């Protein structure tokens, strides 16, 4: 089978975001073969959505038979570049940053946290699982030496944009920010995903109220 080349065509971001859910479902299923319906149920999507998403990358299954689970899992890893050994750096060794490092270690997410940095002298030099917190001044050197391609921002709002700018300048092309502040990047080749936990909880509060309103 000819493997998908990520540079060949533009794939919707929403499709890319669903691929990790399919990969997790394939791993958890533990079957040699799996249908699009079963894969969709495990991942939380319809069978039609599964087939549409995978069709962007080629024909992986057989009608009436389904997909060979291990082959499809390998192909999704290849599409997501996980088979290349993706490495990330966490900026901010506070409660959130250290939790993210430990979570990545415990879940074996295929993204390895290769470094964690901070500006606080009280945390620099301390161990976070297998890593030692290093000073933020080492950011660029660590990215170069450890071939890091992803940055995770877990710093207060005031420091988030300068950190993002340094990550981009150092060659990082994918950034996940947990800072509760809108960030900007001028380089179209850099993808930034922002997660504001406070906003997410506030939005969910609507559904709590909706449930109460619907209760007779």
Order of helices and strands: HEHHEEHEHEEEEHEHEEH
Helical residue percent band? 40-55%
The name of the CATH topology of the largest domain is Rossmann fold
Classified by CATH, the class of the largest domain is: Alpha Beta
Report the total helices: 8
CATH homologous superfamily classification of the largest domain:
NAD(P)-binding Rossmann-like Domain
- Tally of individual domains: 2
Assembly form of the protein: single chain
Query: What general outline do the C-alpha atoms trace?
Result: globular
- Architecture (CATH level 2) name of the largest domain: 3-Layer(aba) Sandwich
The average pLDDT is 88
Spatial ordering of strands, largest sheet: 8-5-4-9-10-11
Share of β-strand residues? 15-25%
CA radius of gyration: 20 Å
The total of beta strands comes to 11
Helix/strand structural class: alpha/beta
Query: Which regions contain 5 or more consecutive residues with pLDDT less than 50?
Result: 1-8
Query: How far apart, in Å, are the first and last alpha carbons?
Result: 57 Å
Q: Largest sheet, described in full? A: 6 strands, parallel
What does this structure look like?
The protein is globular and about 60 Å long. Helix 1 (13-29) packs across helix 2 (36-43), helix 1 packs antiparallel against helix 4 (69-79) and helix 2 (36-43) crosses helix 3 (47-55). By secondary structure, it is an alpha/beta fold. The protein has helices spanning 13-29, 36-43, 47-55, 69-79, 95-107, 139-145, 157-169, 197-214; strands at residues 33-34, 61-62, 66-68, 86-91, 111-118, 127-128, 131-132, 134-135, 150-153, 174-177, 191-194. Helix 5 links the parallel strand 4 and strand 5.
């Amino acid at each position: 089978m000819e493997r998908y080349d990520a540079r060949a065509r533009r794939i919707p971001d929403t499709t890319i975001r669903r691929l990790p859910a399919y990969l997790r479902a394939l791993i958890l299923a533990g079957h040699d073969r799996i249908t699009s319906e079963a894969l969709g149920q495990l991942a939380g999507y319809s069978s039609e959505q599964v087939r549409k998403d995978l069709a962007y990358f080629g024909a992986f299954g057989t009608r009436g038979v389904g997909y060979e689970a291990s082959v499809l899992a390998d192909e999704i890893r290849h599409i997501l570049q996980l088979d290349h050994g993706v490495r990330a750096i966490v900026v901010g060794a506070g409660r959130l940053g250290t939790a993210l490092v430990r979570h990545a270690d415990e879940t074996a997410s295929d993204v390895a946290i290769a470094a964690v940095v901070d500006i606080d002298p009280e945390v620099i030099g301390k161990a976070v699982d297998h890593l030692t917190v290093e000073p933020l001044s080492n950011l660029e050197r660590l990215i170069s030496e450890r071939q890091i391609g992803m940055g995770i921002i877990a710093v207060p709002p005031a420091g988030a944009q300068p950190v993002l700018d340094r990550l981009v300048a150092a060659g990082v092309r994918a950034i996940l920010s947990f800072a509760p502040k809108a960030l900007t990047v001028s380089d179209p080749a850099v993808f930034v995903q922002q997660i504001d936990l406070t906003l997410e909880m506030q939005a969910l509060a609507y559904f709590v109220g909706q449930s109460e309103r619907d209760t007779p």
